[in-house]
Amino acid sequence: MPWPYRPGEPILAEELNTALGKRVELIADSAGVTSSIALVTTGLAVPIAANAQYDFRVRVAYSSSQAGGARFAWTVPSGAAMSRHVLGVTDGQSAASGTVVMRARDIGTEQLVGGGLTFGSYWEDVRVVTAGTTGNCTLMYAQANSNATATIIRALSFVEYRRVNPA
User: What is the CATH topology of the domain spanning 24-163?
Assistant: First the structure.
Protein backbone atom coordinates (compact mmCIF):
# COMPACT_ATOMS: atom_id res chain seq x y z
CA MET A 1 0.00 0.00 0.00
CA PRO A 2 1.48 3.39 -0.94
CA TRP A 3 2.30 6.08 1.55
CA PRO A 4 0.72 8.45 2.34
CA TYR A 5 -2.57 6.67 2.73
CA ARG A 6 -5.64 8.24 1.15
CA PRO A 7 -8.53 9.49 3.31
CA GLY A 8 -10.97 6.70 4.04
CA GLU A 9 -8.50 3.86 3.41
CA PRO A 10 -8.20 1.36 6.23
CA ILE A 11 -4.79 1.29 7.90
CA LEU A 12 -3.70 -1.77 9.85
CA ALA A 13 -1.66 -1.30 13.02
CA GLU A 14 0.84 -3.82 11.63
CA GLU A 15 1.47 -1.56 8.63
CA LEU A 16 2.07 1.46 10.86
CA ASN A 17 4.35 -0.48 13.22
CA THR A 18 6.41 -1.74 10.28
CA ALA A 19 7.07 1.84 9.17
CA LEU A 20 8.18 3.00 12.63
CA GLY A 21 11.88 3.10 13.38
CA LYS A 22 13.47 0.83 15.95
CA ARG A 23 16.81 0.97 17.75
CA VAL A 24 19.42 -1.43 19.13
CA GLU A 25 21.91 0.11 21.53
CA LEU A 26 24.84 -1.06 23.63
CA ILE A 27 24.18 -0.62 27.33
CA ALA A 28 27.79 -1.28 28.37
CA ASP A 29 31.25 -0.99 26.81
CA SER A 30 32.46 -4.02 24.83
CA ALA A 31 35.17 -6.21 26.33
CA GLY A 32 37.61 -4.82 23.75
CA VAL A 33 39.88 -6.54 21.26
CA THR A 34 43.67 -6.57 20.89
CA SER A 35 43.87 -8.37 17.57
CA SER A 36 43.42 -7.43 13.95
CA ILE A 37 42.84 -11.03 12.88
CA ALA A 38 39.29 -12.08 13.78
CA LEU A 39 36.26 -9.84 13.56
CA VAL A 40 34.03 -10.07 16.65
CA THR A 41 30.52 -8.78 17.22
CA THR A 42 29.97 -5.26 18.49
CA GLY A 43 26.74 -6.46 20.07
CA LEU A 44 24.77 -4.43 17.53
CA ALA A 45 22.54 -6.86 15.61
CA VAL A 46 19.40 -5.97 13.67
CA PRO A 47 16.74 -8.64 13.02
CA ILE A 48 15.52 -8.49 9.42
CA ALA A 49 12.74 -10.18 7.47
CA ALA A 50 12.98 -11.92 4.12
CA ASN A 51 12.16 -10.01 0.92
CA ALA A 52 12.35 -6.60 2.57
CA GLN A 53 14.28 -3.35 2.41
CA TYR A 54 15.70 -1.48 5.41
CA ASP A 55 17.55 1.74 6.16
CA PHE A 56 20.07 1.76 9.03
CA ARG A 57 21.66 4.73 10.76
CA VAL A 58 24.75 3.54 12.63
CA ARG A 59 26.64 5.58 15.22
CA VAL A 60 29.57 3.93 17.02
CA ALA A 61 31.72 5.48 19.74
CA TYR A 62 35.05 3.70 20.20
CA SER A 63 38.43 4.17 21.83
CA SER A 64 41.79 2.83 20.71
CA SER A 65 45.51 3.46 20.70
CA GLN A 66 47.01 5.45 17.83
CA ALA A 67 48.52 2.26 16.41
CA GLY A 68 45.46 0.03 16.96
CA GLY A 69 42.58 1.84 15.29
CA ALA A 70 39.50 -0.15 14.33
CA ARG A 71 37.91 -1.87 11.35
CA PHE A 72 34.24 -2.56 10.80
CA ALA A 73 32.29 -4.95 8.56
CA TRP A 74 28.84 -6.58 8.50
CA THR A 75 27.56 -10.14 8.47
CA VAL A 76 24.18 -10.47 6.76
CA PRO A 77 21.74 -13.27 5.88
CA SER A 78 22.37 -15.18 2.67
CA GLY A 79 21.39 -13.31 -0.48
CA ALA A 80 21.13 -9.86 1.15
CA ALA A 81 22.57 -6.81 -0.62
CA MET A 82 23.92 -3.82 1.27
CA SER A 83 24.93 -0.30 0.29
CA ARG A 84 27.08 1.42 2.95
CA HIS A 85 28.17 5.05 3.26
CA VAL A 86 30.77 5.51 5.99
CA LEU A 87 32.40 8.39 7.84
CA GLY A 88 35.32 8.18 10.28
CA VAL A 89 38.87 9.29 11.06
CA THR A 90 41.44 8.04 8.52
CA ASP A 91 43.30 4.85 9.54
CA GLY A 92 46.70 5.45 11.14
CA GLN A 93 45.83 8.99 12.21
CA SER A 94 44.41 10.43 15.38
CA ALA A 95 41.59 12.90 15.80
CA ALA A 96 44.23 15.63 16.12
CA SER A 97 45.13 15.25 12.44
CA GLY A 98 41.64 16.24 11.32
CA THR A 99 41.67 13.85 8.34
CA VAL A 100 38.32 12.17 7.69
CA VAL A 101 37.44 9.23 5.42
CA MET A 102 34.10 9.20 3.59
CA ARG A 103 33.46 6.16 1.39
CA ALA A 104 30.85 3.88 -0.11
CA ARG A 105 31.43 0.22 0.82
CA ASP A 106 29.98 -3.19 -0.09
CA ILE A 107 28.97 -5.85 2.46
CA GLY A 108 32.28 -7.70 2.56
CA THR A 109 34.53 -4.63 2.45
CA GLU A 110 35.99 -3.67 5.81
CA GLN A 111 36.34 -0.01 6.72
CA LEU A 112 39.47 0.98 8.65
CA VAL A 113 39.38 3.98 10.97
CA GLY A 114 42.08 5.69 13.01
CA GLY A 115 43.16 5.40 16.61
CA GLY A 116 44.60 7.51 19.39
CA LEU A 117 41.06 8.42 20.39
CA THR A 118 39.43 8.40 23.81
CA PHE A 119 36.06 8.55 22.07
CA GLY A 120 36.22 8.28 18.30
CA SER A 121 33.13 8.31 16.12
CA TYR A 122 32.29 5.97 13.28
CA TRP A 123 29.10 6.56 11.29
CA GLU A 124 27.35 4.55 8.61
CA ASP A 125 24.18 5.06 6.62
CA VAL A 126 23.12 1.71 5.20
CA ARG A 127 20.48 0.36 2.82
CA VAL A 128 19.81 -3.40 3.08
CA VAL A 129 17.75 -5.37 0.58
CA THR A 130 17.06 -8.93 1.66
CA ALA A 131 16.31 -12.02 -0.40
CA GLY A 132 14.40 -15.07 0.82
CA THR A 133 16.33 -15.49 4.10
CA THR A 134 15.53 -13.94 7.49
CA GLY A 135 18.22 -13.39 10.10
CA ASN A 136 20.39 -10.72 11.65
CA CYS A 137 22.61 -8.02 10.20
CA THR A 138 25.46 -7.81 12.72
CA LEU A 139 28.14 -5.10 12.88
CA MET A 140 31.53 -6.74 13.48
CA TYR A 141 34.86 -5.17 14.48
CA ALA A 142 38.55 -5.78 15.15
CA GLN A 143 41.65 -3.63 15.46
CA ALA A 144 42.98 -2.16 12.24
CA ASN A 145 46.50 -3.12 13.43
CA SER A 146 47.19 -5.48 16.35
CA ASN A 147 48.10 -3.57 19.51
CA ALA A 148 48.27 -4.42 23.22
CA THR A 149 45.94 -1.52 24.04
CA ALA A 150 42.40 -2.78 23.42
CA THR A 151 40.04 -1.16 20.94
CA ILE A 152 36.72 -0.80 22.76
CA ILE A 153 33.22 -0.15 21.41
CA ARG A 154 31.61 2.22 23.88
CA ALA A 155 28.18 2.10 25.52
CA LEU A 156 25.41 4.06 23.80
CA SER A 157 26.66 3.08 20.33
CA PHE A 158 23.54 2.27 18.31
CA VAL A 159 21.84 1.23 15.09
CA GLU A 160 18.50 2.84 14.29
CA TYR A 161 16.65 0.89 11.61
CA ARG A 162 13.43 1.14 9.69
CA ARG A 163 11.77 -1.13 7.17
CA VAL A 164 11.06 1.02 4.15
CA ASN A 165 8.78 -1.31 2.19
CA PRO A 166 5.91 -2.31 4.49
CA ALA A 167 4.42 -5.68 3.62
Answer: Jelly Rolls (2.60.120)
